[in-house]
Amino acid sequence: MNGSVGPMRVLVTGGSGLVGRAIERVVKEEKLLAKHSSDTRAVFERHRPTHVIHLAAMVGGLFRNMRQNLDFWRNNVFINDNVLQAAHDFDVVKVVSCLSTCIFPDKTTYPIDESMIHNGPPHETNFGYAYAKRMIDVQNRALFQQYGRRYTAVIPTNVFGPHDNYNIEDGHVLPGLIHKTYLAKKEGTPLQVWGSGRALRQFIYSLDLARLFLWVLREYDEVEPIILSVGEEDELSIKFAADAVVEALGFEGDVIYDTSKADGQFKKTASNAKLRKYLPDFKFTPFRAAIKETCDWFVANYDSARK
């Protein structure tokens, strides 16, 4: 892949997941993939990357996070230190890591922006994951201060698209909804949506995120993270998202909201003002069109999809 900084050899950690597969599709050729942990150094030794897109992580939805905060903390701290230290040791020019809006303080003013990451404790449901991801920013700043490394991170809002994890118990909200709606249609049963449906989220299609990731890799020169998101005006309720899934899959049964299940944070409204300063004309895929593409992919790939 050639960018503005000359030929790159790009290593994508966690390259087989949702965002990695989207980046692969956008680049149109297989990039070098790495799993995390003990083989990290061997992968760097073998491929000698000049640039790294670091996606490898232990991830899960609200309910899995609530059960396994220690596992999320330990595994992600290990993964991130392995990758960032190996990148430094092998003289990698640039690393772009992936954070999440769920790492921001629970008690905050909205919209949240890049300067607010460390301003207070994260939501109690996923504090293990959130603190581990925050430490990437700490490590990037320290690598810059001590060695002048320009390693950075992006903060996407809720990502969805083909190749997601559609596990109903442990997946994120949209892929879980897509799988549940598919099964409800097939079995002729009502669709049960967990929570009230009132919680608000900004969703970003994985292919839009992939295009932005590659822009960050080639052009963005700050160490401070950048939020990659649709605007505040495009924040949607879970009910709106569920309705879009129902429409895309042609489900005609009853939809029931199970209010005994947690909603998680009511909202995490993020500002994309910094992104818009750099890319004022970037066009995001309209939400319903992206949902339709995602649902069509899931139906066509049901047997092989992660679930």
Automatic annotation (TrEMBL):
CDD domains: GDP_FS_SDR_e
Pathway(s) it belongs to: Nucleotide-sugar biosynthesis; GDP-L-fucose biosynthesis via de novo pathway; GDP-L-fucose from GDP-alpha-D-mannose: step 2/2
Annotated ranges, domain NAD-dependent epimerase/dehydratase: 10-231
Keywords linked to the UniProt accession: Isomerase, NADP, Oxidoreductase
Domain of life: Eukaryota
Enzyme Commission designation: 1.1.1.271
Listed GO MF terms: GDP-L-fucose synthase activity; isomerase activity
First and last residue of the signal peptide: none
Role according to the record: Catalyzes the two-step NADP-dependent conversion of GDP-4-dehydro-6-deoxy-D-mannose to GDP-fucose, involving an epimerase and a reductase reaction.
Similarity comment text for this entry: Belongs to the NAD(P)-dependent epimerase/dehydratase family. Fucose synthase subfamily.
Official protein name in the record: GDP-L-fucose synthase
Lineage: Eukaryota, Metazoa, Chordata, Craniata, Vertebrata
Gene designation: GFUS
